[in-house]
Design brief:
The protein is of the alpha/beta class and about 500 residues long. The chain has 21 helices and 12 strands. It has helices at about 15-25, 25-35, 35-40, 40-50, 55-60, 65-75, 80-90, 100-120, 125-140, 160-170, 190-200, 220-225, 235-260, 275-285, 290-310, 330-335, 350-365, 395-405, 445-455, 470-480, 490-504, and strands at about 150-160, 180-185, 205-210, 265, 315-320, 370-375, 380-385, 390-395, 410-415, 435-440, 460-465, 485. The strands form 3 sheets. It has a 5-stranded parallel sheet with strand order 2-1-3-4-5, with helices on both faces. Strands 10-9-6-11-12 form a 5-stranded parallel sheet, with helices on both faces.
Length: about 500
């Protein structure tokens, strides 16, 4: 997909600041001006036709759009661009739409926003700022002109966490030729969830996600977490959560039997959500002990059920570990709001979980069926250039590759180097771990046909990792069927680790 022009903080700071102020100062008027773009969506067109108060409709449904765009321009934050796109994606969502129909509507909506908002700017901001705005929105809209190379069809079962996650995923998908087709099952009763999931038994999904307790889909669970009762006994807590956990494991059984794709189930951080930061912190403190116990119970039950199902069938259930988010963020920061209105209230947690989902979706789409990893050496498997002296092996990276090898993935080398200098002292891997080695001063693209001829593995089954973008670009342009990943990108190794886990 086409990627919109990036914000240049040095060159465009004044224009961005001017746009940010304009959106901030005129949000309600701009929301009302956007009503004609909302009429492009059939369900909104009907509401607009019937309402006697367009301003209230605009404030409720559309004001977030200029608010998000204003923050995007003033802060240069991709999070707010993602939230803008996510809101438009939500409006464009129709379960009966094809990916082409959805993308066409997205393009029309964004172009309508561009035209309406830029006309509102005339005479109020510099002409250069209007041009800049048009360039940004045009770049975003053009991203929906080209069909994606990869499509991932996913089922999302559970609570309204998915509204946040899908918003942030909308932004991530702009930079990759990968589009997501979601199906939502978000009923609040277990019986209705079962019925709706069972009705999808004949559908084929690439991935299933299940979030039973993240954002309080079950009112009794939400009430327990928010109660702030420091004197409630564990027996009373269990009386509330045990039936909910029983329903959850029943749903996991059902999905495990119906769907043969990977299924990812959340444990729960049991976050206290409240737009007032001070009240949120007080409630979090009052419920800390209670929530700690509930988190432990949910985590234990979910993990045990995943293990039981995988042992009785095959490994296709996995954990989305919300508790691991606390390694980098506090509960307070995760429960912070990017924005808060009656209908839109995305949390930092949603953005963090979207990173986990994106790793899972990309790994499943781009890596899970690959058979061969072709590795560069210098600054990829070790730190430094081995021909210039001592190097330090990247032990963690080599351990991940070793896990992949143990699970049936084949390893090969493609390196510009003097073979006499290459050694594996201090490393996890050694020359015997590689079924093919091309170590010379030839262009790297030359080695791939030789690898294919020697190993009889199709290039669509290759992954190539290198620390240099020019080498990756040359291989990708010559052999577009090869997945090319940057060895210096942390996400590459996170995806490799997940790949190994999913192959286990």
């Amino acid at each position: 997909m086409t990627v919109p022009p990036k914000l240049d903080s040095a060159l465009d700071a004044s224009l961005r600041s001017e746009l940010g102020r304009f959106f901030s100062q005129n949000a309600e008027n701009l929301a009302l001006a956007l009503v004609p773009s909302a009429e492009l969506v059939s369900r909104f067109a009907a509401q607009i036709k019937e309402t006697n108060d367009l301003q209230s409709f605009a404030n409720r449904e559309l004001k977030c759009l200029p608010d998000y765009l204003g923050r995007f321009f003033s802060d240069g934050s991709d999070a707010f661009k993602s939230l803008y796109l996510g809101e438009r994606n939500k409006m464009a969502y129709d379960a009966d739409f094809s990916i082409e129909e959805r993308n066409a509507l997205m393009k029309r909506l964004i172009e309508a926003d561009r035209d309406i908002l830029s006309s509102q700017m005339n005479g109020h901001v510099k002409a250069e700022a209007v041009i800049y705005f048009n360039q940004q929105l045009t770049g975003i809209s053009e991203s929906f002109s080209k069909p994606p190379q990869d499509i991932s069809k996913i089922l999302l079962v559970g609570d309204c966490l998915y509204l946040d996650v899908m918003a942030f995923l909308s932004g991530k998908s702009l930079s990759d030729d990968l589009s997501i087709i979601p199906t939502f099952v978000t009923a609040r009763s277990a019986s209705q969830l079962k019925a709706e999931i069972s009705a999808l038994a004949s559908e084929k999904y690439d991935l299933v996600f299940f979030s039973p307790f993240s954002y309080g889909a079950r009112p009794e669970f939400e009430e327990l977490i928010r109660s702030g009762n420091p004197f409630i006994s564990q027996s009373k807590i269990n009386k509330i959560i045990d039936p909910l956990l029983d329903e959850t494991v029943d749903l996991m059984d059902l999905m495990g039997n119906l769907f043969d794709c990977p299924i990812f189930t959340h444990n729960s951080l049991c976050l206290v959500r409240h737009p007032d930061e001070r009240k949120r912190q007080i409630k979090s403190l009052l419920t800390k002990k209670l929530r700690g116990y509930v988190k432990g119970r949910v985590d234990s039950v979910i993990k045990n059920k995943i293990l039981t199902i995988n042992q009785s069938t095959y490994k296709h259930l996995f954990l989305v570990d919300e508790l691991a988010l606390l390694e980098k963020d506090s509960e307070t920061s995760l429960a912070s709001y990017f924005y808060c209105s009656d209908l839109q209230h995305p949390l930092v947690m949603g953005e963090r979980v979207s990173h986990l989902y994106w790793h899972i979706i990309k790994t499943n789409s781009q890596l899970i069926k690959k058979k061969l990893v072709v590795c560069d050496l210098d600054n990829t498997l070790w730190d430094g250039v081995i021909g210039e002296g001592a190097v330090k092996h990247f032990v963690d990276r080599q351990q991940v590759l070793k896990k992949l090898q143990d699970r049936g993935v084949v390893l090969a080398i493609n390196s510009k180097n003097d073979p006499a200098n290459v050694h594996w002292d201090g490393g996890v891997l050694n020359e015997d771990d590689f079924v093919f080695s091309s170590i010379d001063w030839e262009m790297k693209v030359k080695a791939f046909p030789e690898i294919q001829q020697e190993l009889n593995i199709k290039m669509k089954d290759y992954v190539f990792i290198d620390d240099r973008e020019d080498e990756l670009g040359m291989v990708s342009s010559t052999f577009p069927e090869i997945a090319c990943l940057n060895a210096t990108d942390k996400m590459t190794w996170e995806m490799f680790s997940l790949w190994a886990e999913m192959l286990d």
